[in-house]
Amino acid sequence: MLWAIFAMMTSSVALALARSLSERREVVRAHDPNVTFYRDLLTEADEDVRSGLLASEDAVTTRAEIERRLLASLNSACEGRPHASRRGGERRGAAALAIVLMLPLVALASYLKVGAPSQPDMPIASRPSNGDFSLAAAVPDIHAGQAGANIAGLPPEQRSNAIRGMVAELAEKLSKDGHHLQGWLQLIRSYAALGERKKAEAAVASARAQLAGDEQASASVDELVRRLRLKE
């Protein structure tokens, strides 16, 4: 419930600012390609939440970043700054890549903090406190709210190593106990975001084997495979 309130607050503030910018400058048109691009990304994020591919708390961070870029685009258009079509396309492409990469990484950071692949699905408060039940034990300094900023501030090589290290840690945990749907979904998305489609497809096969018999879990995996356009 708290995350839903944060999401509503974030969206309300962003929409209010966008309306203010729009009223101050008549040059912003509804069919502006940048505006349409970011609105489409917001729609896709909402669809991921409804389909269960993205947790509500992860959606808060993702929507905030997309809305920040949308506001920046609106402000740029209001000020009448020139944008060559090629340069605009490159910027949109870079923004799309950043957002697409951020989505699984924010989710992964959150899972590293509170996930427990060795435990059945149940409220965190109901889980035993003893034993190695949490991935946070492996990466104790990562917190979901600051993981993205910490990783983004690293040099390219260190950032790549940090991301791959997080993914590898999750893969190792799931290899020991793979009866956890959210862990597999995070792993598959992370591999896809890193461009390692063969590993993503291998993770899909492992997830299906480990989750066999759970129709809802299998359906969630199948839906993610379709959205990422992985081989069946």
UniProtKB/TrEMBL annotation:
Membrane-traversing stretches: 93-112
Keywords attached to this entry: Membrane, Signal, Transmembrane, Transmembrane helix
Protein name stated in the entry: C-type cytochrome biogenesis protein CcmI
Domain of life: Bacteria
InterPro entries to which the protein is assigned, alphabetical: Cyt_c_biogenesis_CcmI
Signal peptide limits: 1-16
Gene assigned in the entry: ccmI
